[in-house]
TrEMBL record:
SUPFAM superfamilies attached to this UniProt entry: (Trans)glycosidases (SSF51445), Beta-D-glucan exohydrolase, C-terminal domain (SSF52279), Galactose-binding domain-like (SSF49785)
BP GO terms, sorted: glucan catabolic process
Organism whose genome encodes this protein: Dysgonomonas alginatilytica
Entries under Pfam families matching the protein: Fn3-like, Glyco_hydro_3, Glyco_hydro_3_C
Region forming the signal peptide: 1-18
Molecular function GO labels: beta-glucosidase activity
Coiled coil: 430-460
Name under which the protein is recorded: Beta-glucosidase
Domain Fibronectin type III-like as annotated: residue spans: 737-806
UniProt record similarity statement: Belongs to the glycosyl hydrolase 3 family.
Keyword line: Coiled coil, Hydrolase, Signal
Amino acid sequence: MRYLLTCSLLSLSLFTMAQKDSRIPPAKDLIIYQLPKNSIYHKGWIDFNKNGKMDVYEDPSATIDARIEDLLSQMNVDEKTCQMVTLYGYKRVLADDLPTPEWKNKLWKDGMGAIDEHLNGFQQWGLPPSDNPFVWPASRHAWALNEVQRFFIEETRLGIPTDFTNEGIRGVESYMATNFPTQLGLGHTWNRDLINKVGYITGREGRLLGYTNIYAPILDVGRDQRWGRYEEVYGESPYLVAELGVAMTKGLQKDYQVASTAKHYIAYSNNKGGREGMARVDPQMSPREVENIHVYPWKRVIKEAGLLGAMSAYNDYDGFPIQSSYYWLTTVLRKEMGFKGYVVSDSDAVEYLHSKHGTSADMKESVRQSVEAGLNVRCTFRSPDSYVLPLRELIHEGGISMETIDDRVRDILRVKFLVGLFDAPYQIDLKAADKEVNSLENQQIALQASRESLVLLKNENNTLPLSKDKVKTISICGPNANDASYALTHYGPLAVEVSSVLDGITAKVGKNTEILYTLGCDLVDANWPESEILPSPLTTDEQAEIDKAVANALKSDVAIVVLGGNNRTCGENKSRSSLDLPGRQLNLLQAVQATGKPVVLIMINGRPNSINWADKYVPAILEAWYPGSQGGKAIADVLFGDYNPGGKLTVTFPKTVGQIPFNFPVKPASQVDGGRSVGMQGNMSRVNGALYPFGYGLSYTTFKYSDLMISPSVITPKQEVTVRCKITNTGDRDGDEVVQLYTRDIISSVTTYEKNLRGFERVHLKAGETKEVSFTLYPRDFELLNLDNNWVIEPGDFRIMIGASSEDIRLKDILTVAPYGEQTVLKKIAGVNESVSMVLDNNNNTEWDGVNGDYLTFVMEENTQPDRIGIYWKAIEHPAAFEIQLSSGGGQFLTVFKGDIKETEKLSTYSFPKTIASDVRIVITSGKASISEVKLENVKR
């Protein structure tokens, strides 16, 4: 396979270069890093400023604040400004892999805030990993970074160590390292403990390689499925992003092994039309949505995990670039959220102030605005001189005060002290890097992550799992069947061995099963993406390759089609104008399905795709996202029943791009639209509803929910509440269920979301086993941003819902938040008048009386589609007639049923066409009648 061949050739190249490079230390020196005999190194401390005594900043027993102030008092302007910039590493900006004598004449002779991606193997998009001999093996790489660190400690006046930064959203970016699914895949595990392990492994491997600051996690919340970077978000729920972000950050920063720098602060992930590149501007959101959706994860990760880094985003919001916003970088981030780390710019965010946003005249003014706003470190693919020199001019001219500069440098030094750079600046145990980085033990965690990220979208007639005993011939096709390039792109490990779907299935079935493979089609066609709006017939070659796939399918017991995308169709700067399958992929799928053989569709992609045809006609669909280097094995485990899939969607699948914006959470009735009947005589004008909703996912077993308990059921605004329920595996296979808890503020001073995710647990249950699941709801879970823009908890009723997805609610009840001192809280059916209450109380002795023209109106839950109603007529005066009317919004009621009232003292059920309804009304149209009970599902309570 191409990617394995590339890795092998690169490894050989590295070995050959190592033999020729005299700078490479012998193997015996790559076990424990040996510091040279230098008078600055003492037992327990380092004389960084070479003055022969232990200064406060050199004293490990002193407080961090004291050490910062002592060092800051010794720094001159040149040294301070050099701390405020990043030098991009080898072959990005820095021309040298190891220090050279010329470094003493470079800007960084006075130190450097950070060196980014140095010798991590990445060159640039589209190029293979670097063949520099210090890229690999791990021990040699760590040795090389130590040698670079020695320059800053031994050759600069104050010896301030540099912060080695690197990417790490799916494993630390290195030639080799443990390779995890992309963050979108990790989100679909819904497993905090697992994400914490991923974070710890990423941070541990990063530190062993010599890095001290990892750019992860992504705290962007998904809002537009067209966006190229959808593959990098955990999901669409700010609560889920916060929960997994906390877990990841705590794992990364365990024992301060590295600093975690989260991306991208703030309001970054909802660009207009999903656009990217230079168009990363103008997110289309209200201020309240920014607070509820985008600020929420940052507040919690900073408070609960002590996040040490924040990357300021390119975009503006409401006309104000984030990079130059004192409000966002200081007032909100530091004063309101309590952030104590340092802010680093995202690439050209500073330059964009004058080159794109037009809010600055030139680079010098952009620097001034950024520093005044709260930027600590400029990081981009440009010489650090381009930032430091105008910064020094500003200081000299009085354009920026030394008080401001000192504040910015304090934050940088604080992070360096916290991660131990002044106490343990070198990675001493070089052999540990060879032993632990991408170890078999860590790969098992990666395999678990790959398995848990998989989501079963459809499994008609139990097509899956397949039986190795019964399936003797398998046809496999599709552009992603034998391709694993998605696992080897930027922001993660670059050259690890990857298991493709074809690899995984081949290894799983062994020699007793015949596998027939052909490509079927390319990922895109020759005119893509223009072919999405100007389709053309299949070429002769395209048809011939599809015909091969069909011929193979006809010879097989089951056909496996592997479609989706890769870094050609998704990723940074890869937003789309459609969510349909690109290229000829649908043609291939339709042709294989037409053979009549059982078909399994596997989707490998970085965003939800609108696979409507597949959902209707293909019996089994497995969503794999970008499942990491262990993906092929994980998928094969699921296909053949060795692992029962339990992932659930953290994103919404629209049926068409024309529904966007369509994501979770939603405002009440925001997805209600139009009629429900198609055709020339129908009333439907657009496609409605999700293809697959947030939280959805199937299993090879089934689960029953029962015994909901809310304790206490009445609380004050400062109390916690416990919600419990029982989950039973009612099938014959062990499996995982992701139990989801949602809340709804029933009556509020401002409009709130119809469902707020406020709890989840991934529970493993053996066949027949029952477990109790417990959730704790905190005061923050009931807050809203009121009309005065204050976060408050308004007393009243909250609906508590537990389910298998956002649209599959199994249990629900009411929790009441009462003001202090209120002894009795009367719980009523929310929004229902006393007359309606009487016919919903399960008591035949209470009744409502109506005469001609009187009516009862029932307010329905959002997106309800009633098709029947039960009425217990208590008494009538003949002749009596009635109508059932529905409203789908706007106050207009349409009659869906007319009839005479014929029988009393029994429940009569009336059916009508299923129609979405906000209200259901029973109208007495003649005579007089009494109703004691009404049976109607999904009445708002």
